[in-house]
């Protein structure tokens, strides 16, 4: 599991460094201007899940957010509000159905 540091967008342009998605998932800090850039270079679709902690007012688990990234596609997932962070470590947890040929980067504007 890697804690991804945000890469800041710039008016003059910013090269985005993508890293291999971690098999055990990744984390980012909650950020209302932050997002996860996911590139799926595989021939199969992958599901990226943002784990939402806590329970609803009715005692049921908050639903996680699952995003399917098609084969060969790139997706931008976010932003990450404070409500998405785990209270135990103050990070947003992200998991992947598989990490073969998946690269990611945390970006912010």
Describe this structure in words.
The chain has one domain (2-108). Helices cover 0% and strands 40% of the residues. It has no helices and ten strands. The chain has a five-stranded mixed sheet with strand order 1-4-9-6-7, with no helix packed on it. Strands 2, 3, 5, 8 and 10 form a five-stranded mixed sheet that branches. The two termini are 24 Å apart. The mean pLDDT is 97.
- What general form does the structure show? globular
Strand order of the largest sheet: 1-4-9-6-7
Task: Summarize model confidence as the mean pLDDT.
Answer: 97
Beta-strand percentage range: 35-45%
| Helical run tally | 0
Rg is: 14 Å
Instruction: Sketch the topology as an H/E string, one letter per element.
Output: EEEEEEEEEE
Task: List key phrases describing it.
single chain; 109 residues; mainly beta; 5-stranded mixed β-sheet; 10 strands; 0% helix; 40% strand; globular
Write a brief caption for the model.
The protein is mainly β and 109 residues long. The chain has strands at 2-3, 6-8, 19-20, 26-28, 34-40, 46-51, 65-69, 74-77, 92-96, 102-108.
């Amino acid at each position: 599991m890697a804690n991804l540091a945000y890469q800041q967008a710039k008016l003059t342009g910013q090269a985005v460094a993508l890293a291999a998605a971690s098999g055990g998932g990744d984390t980012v800090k909650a950020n209302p201007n932050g997002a996860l850039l996911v590139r799926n270079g595989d021939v199969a679709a992958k599901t990226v899940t943002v784990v939402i902690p806590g329970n609803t007012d009715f005692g049921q688990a908050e639903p996680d957010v699952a995003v399917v990234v098609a084969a060969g596609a790139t997706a931008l997932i976010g932003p990450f509000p404070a409500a998405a962070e785990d209270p135990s470590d103050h990070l947003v947890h992200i998991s992947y159905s598989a990490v073969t040929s998946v690269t990611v980067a945390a970006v912010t504007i």
